Amino acid sequence: MRQTNTIIRFLQGLAFWLALFLAWPLSAEDATDAASSDDLPIVSAFAQAQNQELSSDHLSILMVPLTAGELSEIADVWQGHVRAALDESARLNIALIEASDAEAKQLRAQLGAVTEAHSELIPLYELVLENWDRKGAAPEDTQAHRNFITAVQADAVRTTDVRTLVRLVSAWLISIEGGLGLLIKLAGALIAIWGMMFVARFARRMAKRGLEKVPNLSKLLKSFVLTAIYWITFVVGILLVLALFGVNVTPLFAVIGGLSFILGFALQETLGNLASGLMIMVLKPFDMGDFIQTAGISGVVDEMSVVSTQIRTFDNQIIVVPNSKIWGDVITNVSASATRRVDLVFGIAYTDNAAHAIRVLEDLVAKHVLCLNDPAPEIFVGELGDSSVNIFCRPWAKSDDYWTVYWDLTGQAKERFDSEGISIPFPQRDVHLYQVTQDDGGQ
To answer: Is the peptide bond before 375 cis (omega within 30 degrees of 0)?
Structure first.
């Protein structure tokens, strides 16, 4: 037991001295850093913000604690930096006019360097003005600086030597921060758009797999949801790409909000069609490929958007109906059931045997391969018309075979009635004439 305690105390002491040994260099280094940092002169942000060698990121950080009055002075300082560069540019341009060819080459090189320095100062100068605006600058004060920037930029281009301008433009085109950089950004944007399209297709494909597992979901609603997922993914992806490229997308949301408010009033009828379309998709009174009768139109539903439904008639006409008219009218979905009853009426003469005609129709229905045995067909005398005895023939068939059965039985019944001697009468009327003799005395 004593040996165990001794070993534990030894290990604890070893750990303590090891930790102290490792911590000592760090403490010495921290003390050295603290001493060196204390020795450094403290320069205020106001003084540092006047340095024309700053980058835009550093200048933005330095302007955070500055007041509007201090930023006013900073703007005057940066105006002085720009003016100094323009003074040097003016001196070199004047010297170029009177210089020899040998001297002109050297002067143009100097002028190009001064012009590049001037072009780098302008964005920093404008950055100072933007910060000044945010902190309550008077509009006329910052406008005076902006007028100065606009004027000197135009005049600098107009007065600069042409060959120097060509050289500067050529250098800008091949610069990574100029034309080449812009081309790379454009290529990156195109690649990003292509990538977002791929991501949107992938999201739509995954959503389609998920929707296929949901039972009793209409094809119309699936199509709408998949389209919405595709475009939402694509638009959100593009906004993210623009944000990565430094584009401020916050104003876009404000514009979209304002437009949605205006369009809400301007497109009330369209919004009504949108609501009706969503109700049709959710409640599913019909689906794509169904034969429907609504709004005075009969046909097969080809496709449907959130505002309208496209219906194809049997004579191949395409009719586009607003969803509000469909939802506000009676909808008859002929294809909703798997089977349908085919209602046929055959008229025979009063002199013919009705039972014989019924047996003929029963034979035709029994032999037709598309007529169903369950439910059983019904054939009976249903009406005594003005000029015929009407026999109702009501076999059942699959919904897709309705018209085939209808036309087949109509043609076959005519041929069998003719061969069986059963007549199909046409409307006729008996006219009785009565001769009235008029008494002579009554004249």
So the answer is: yes
